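Quick start: read one record
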Amino acid sequence: MAKISSFIGLPPSSLKNLFFFFLVLPIFFTNSTQNHHLLDSVTPLELIQAQIIIKNQFSNSHHNLSFHYVGLDEPAHKSWQSNLDQNPCRRAFIIARFARETHEIIVDLSKNIIVSDNLYSGHGYPLLSYGEQINASSLATSYPPFIASIKKRGLKLFA
Protein backbone atom coordinates (compact mmCIF):
# COMPACT_ATOMS: atom_id res chain seq x y z
CA MET A 1 0.00 0.00 0.00
CA ALA A 2 2.90 2.34 0.76
CA LYS A 3 4.38 1.87 -2.74
CA ILE A 4 1.05 2.66 -4.38
CA SER A 5 0.40 5.70 -2.20
CA SER A 6 3.91 7.08 -2.86
CA PHE A 7 3.36 6.49 -6.58
CA ILE A 8 0.04 8.42 -6.52
CA GLY A 9 1.30 11.03 -4.08
CA LEU A 10 -1.34 10.47 -1.35
CA PRO A 11 -0.75 9.41 2.25
CA PRO A 12 -1.81 5.79 2.98
CA SER A 13 -4.78 6.86 5.17
CA SER A 14 -6.23 9.05 2.38
CA LEU A 15 -5.83 6.24 -0.11
CA LYS A 16 -7.70 3.85 2.20
CA ASN A 17 -10.53 6.37 2.60
CA LEU A 18 -10.70 6.92 -1.15
CA PHE A 19 -10.73 3.16 -1.79
CA PHE A 20 -13.48 2.66 0.82
CA PHE A 21 -15.53 5.52 -0.66
CA PHE A 22 -15.48 4.07 -4.18
CA LEU A 23 -16.11 0.56 -2.91
CA VAL A 24 -19.11 1.40 -0.69
CA LEU A 25 -20.77 4.15 -2.76
CA PRO A 26 -21.97 1.83 -5.56
CA ILE A 27 -23.55 -0.47 -2.98
CA PHE A 28 -25.74 2.39 -1.68
CA PHE A 29 -26.80 3.38 -5.19
CA THR A 30 -27.76 -0.15 -6.20
CA ASN A 31 -29.78 -0.64 -3.01
CA SER A 32 -31.64 2.66 -3.30
CA THR A 33 -32.53 2.38 -6.99
CA GLN A 34 -33.57 -1.25 -7.24
CA ASN A 35 -37.23 -2.17 -7.61
CA HIS A 36 -38.62 -3.80 -4.55
CA HIS A 37 -40.98 -6.72 -4.54
CA LEU A 38 -44.45 -5.90 -3.32
CA LEU A 39 -43.97 -7.96 -0.17
CA ASP A 40 -40.46 -6.75 0.73
CA SER A 41 -40.10 -4.96 4.05
CA VAL A 42 -40.44 -1.20 4.13
CA THR A 43 -37.06 0.32 3.31
CA PRO A 44 -35.52 3.13 5.38
CA LEU A 45 -36.24 5.57 2.53
CA GLU A 46 -39.87 4.47 2.38
CA LEU A 47 -40.09 4.85 6.16
CA ILE A 48 -38.91 8.46 5.90
CA GLN A 49 -41.24 9.05 2.94
CA ALA A 50 -44.27 7.80 4.92
CA GLN A 51 -43.32 9.95 7.92
CA ILE A 52 -43.02 13.07 5.74
CA ILE A 53 -46.41 12.44 4.11
CA ILE A 54 -48.12 12.05 7.49
CA LYS A 55 -46.30 14.98 9.10
CA ASN A 56 -47.42 17.21 6.22
CA GLN A 57 -51.02 16.11 6.77
CA PHE A 58 -50.95 16.87 10.51
CA SER A 59 -48.55 19.84 10.44
CA ASN A 60 -51.04 22.63 11.10
CA SER A 61 -51.81 21.64 14.68
CA HIS A 62 -50.22 22.21 18.06
CA HIS A 63 -50.63 18.52 19.07
CA ASN A 64 -47.70 16.10 19.12
CA LEU A 65 -47.55 13.36 16.51
CA SER A 66 -45.83 10.12 17.52
CA PHE A 67 -45.29 7.04 15.38
CA HIS A 68 -45.78 3.71 17.14
CA TYR A 69 -45.58 1.32 14.19
CA VAL A 70 -44.65 1.59 10.54
CA GLY A 71 -44.76 -1.52 8.39
CA LEU A 72 -45.85 -2.94 5.10
CA ASP A 73 -49.55 -2.90 4.30
CA GLU A 74 -49.85 -6.33 2.74
CA PRO A 75 -52.38 -6.41 -0.08
CA ALA A 76 -54.96 -9.15 -0.50
CA HIS A 77 -53.41 -12.30 -1.96
CA LYS A 78 -55.45 -12.22 -5.18
CA SER A 79 -54.69 -8.58 -5.92
CA TRP A 80 -50.90 -8.87 -5.78
CA GLN A 81 -50.79 -12.28 -7.45
CA SER A 82 -52.74 -11.00 -10.48
CA ASN A 83 -50.45 -7.95 -10.79
CA LEU A 84 -47.08 -9.72 -10.82
CA ASP A 85 -46.32 -8.45 -14.34
CA GLN A 86 -47.10 -4.85 -13.42
CA ASN A 87 -45.38 -2.78 -10.78
CA PRO A 88 -48.13 -2.66 -8.14
CA CYS A 89 -48.18 0.15 -5.59
CA ARG A 90 -46.52 -0.34 -2.25
CA ARG A 91 -48.35 0.82 0.83
CA ALA A 92 -47.23 1.45 4.37
CA PHE A 93 -49.41 0.77 7.41
CA ILE A 94 -48.82 3.21 10.26
CA ILE A 95 -50.13 3.39 13.80
CA ALA A 96 -49.70 6.91 15.11
CA ARG A 97 -50.87 8.88 18.14
CA PHE A 98 -52.16 12.38 17.51
CA ALA A 99 -54.30 14.58 19.75
CA ARG A 100 -54.66 11.73 22.28
CA GLU A 101 -56.18 9.45 19.65
CA THR A 102 -54.77 6.43 17.90
CA HIS A 103 -54.83 6.55 14.09
CA GLU A 104 -54.45 3.60 11.73
CA ILE A 105 -53.13 5.16 8.54
CA ILE A 106 -52.40 3.63 5.14
CA VAL A 107 -50.03 5.56 2.87
CA ASP A 108 -49.62 4.83 -0.84
CA LEU A 109 -45.87 5.21 -1.32
CA SER A 110 -46.05 5.38 -5.12
CA LYS A 111 -48.55 8.27 -5.15
CA ASN A 112 -47.38 10.00 -1.93
CA ILE A 113 -50.90 10.16 -0.53
CA ILE A 114 -52.77 8.98 2.53
CA VAL A 115 -55.25 6.35 1.36
CA SER A 116 -57.05 5.96 4.68
CA ASP A 117 -56.94 7.37 8.19
CA ASN A 118 -59.12 5.52 10.69
CA LEU A 119 -59.40 6.21 14.39
CA TYR A 120 -58.74 3.12 16.47
CA SER A 121 -61.70 2.37 18.71
CA GLY A 122 -61.14 -1.29 19.55
CA HIS A 123 -60.41 -3.04 22.80
CA GLY A 124 -57.05 -2.94 24.45
CA TYR A 125 -54.77 -0.10 25.29
CA PRO A 126 -52.79 1.73 22.64
CA LEU A 127 -49.18 2.56 23.26
CA LEU A 128 -48.57 5.77 25.15
CA SER A 129 -46.71 8.71 23.71
CA TYR A 130 -43.60 9.98 25.49
CA GLY A 131 -45.53 12.78 27.22
CA GLU A 132 -48.26 10.39 28.31
CA GLN A 133 -45.61 8.03 29.74
CA ILE A 134 -44.10 10.87 31.78
CA ASN A 135 -47.54 11.83 33.13
CA ALA A 136 -48.37 8.20 34.00
CA SER A 137 -45.04 7.76 35.81
CA SER A 138 -45.46 10.89 37.89
CA LEU A 139 -49.03 9.94 38.76
CA ALA A 140 -47.95 6.78 40.57
CA THR A 141 -45.27 8.51 42.65
CA SER A 142 -47.68 11.25 43.75
CA TYR A 143 -50.59 8.94 44.65
CA PRO A 144 -50.90 8.88 48.50
CA PRO A 145 -52.04 5.22 48.86
CA PHE A 146 -49.10 4.12 46.69
CA ILE A 147 -46.63 6.20 48.74
CA ALA A 148 -48.08 4.74 51.98
CA SER A 149 -47.75 1.22 50.59
CA ILE A 150 -44.09 1.78 49.70
CA LYS A 151 -43.31 3.23 53.17
CA LYS A 152 -45.15 0.36 54.86
CA ARG A 153 -42.78 -2.08 53.15
CA GLY A 154 -39.73 -0.09 54.24
CA LEU A 155 -38.83 0.90 50.69
CA LYS A 156 -37.79 4.28 49.37
CA LEU A 157 -39.35 6.03 46.43
CA PHE A 158 -36.88 7.23 43.86
CA ALA A 159 -37.63 10.80 42.90
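Residues 12-33 form the longest helix (22 residues).
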